[in-house]
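Chapter review. Work through the record for Cu(I)/Ag(I) efflux system protein CusF before attempting the end-of-chapter questions.
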Amino acid sequence: MKFIPTLALILAFSASGLATAQTAGMSDEPGAGSKATTHKTIAVVKGVDTANGKVKLAHEPVKSLNWPAMTMNFSVKDPALFDKLVVGKKVEVEFVQQGSTSVITAVR
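Structure tokens for Cu(I)/Ag(I) efflux system protein CusF:
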């Protein structure tokens, strides 16, 4: 008859371990535990779409992502950055990947 109390004890420990595993890495702080890597590249602005928060850049290779040089669209995090994103201008941009979207966070 010791089987049932032993089984109950095993299940209790298993349940607490599962709860701990499910909350591991969780935090009350937004963005905690998800450090976005910032990437940099030099690019020429090819197009600007302020209405949709996008810019088209012809950029040099991005070594941190193993990307070749290419022309692509980026989202722009802060609308104030559009002041520095003028068609034909050569700029240095910093960006992060948010899923499959590249988001510009700084322009120099």
